[in-house]
């Protein structure tokens, strides 16, 4: 099983980034997917979730209206489009997968660094 994130980097405040997560080794289309982030000295927080079919999405209040999660079940990928980035968005971003009936996440990626700074 692998979840491999990509697309992180350094961006100016107000800029955009698109993160991608490539999944392999499990039946991607039946898993709910999510993005989380962890800033230095802070706990990991949930950023966005998307259901197995892509029909339901949810966002943390801090990113609503700026971030958009999507998935492509044919390509086993989940993405996070991040617009209007702020310095407070600086963190390591992780994708994760869980089955619809699991209270916890089954699989995690290794993370990708996003730094928003001038």
Nutshell version of this structure?
By secondary structure, this protein is mainly β. The protein is 0% helix and 50% strand.
Quaternary assembly: single chain
Q: How widely separated are the two ends?
A: 37 Å
User: Mean pLDDT, as a whole number?
Assistant: 97
Radius of gyration: 13 Å
Helicity level = under 10%
Number of strands: 11
Biggest sheet overview: 7 strands, mixed
| Low-pLDDT segments, ≥5 res | none
Shape: globular
Tally of individual helices: 0
Strand content: over 45%
Write down the secondary-structure element order: EEEEEEEEEEE
Would you tell me the structural class of the helices and strands? mainly beta
Q: How would you describe the overall organization of this protein?
A:
- Helix content is 0%, strand content 50%.
- It has 118 residues and is mostly beta strands.
- The protein is globular, with a radius of gyration of 13 Å.
- The N and C termini lie far apart (37 Å).
- The mean pLDDT is 97.
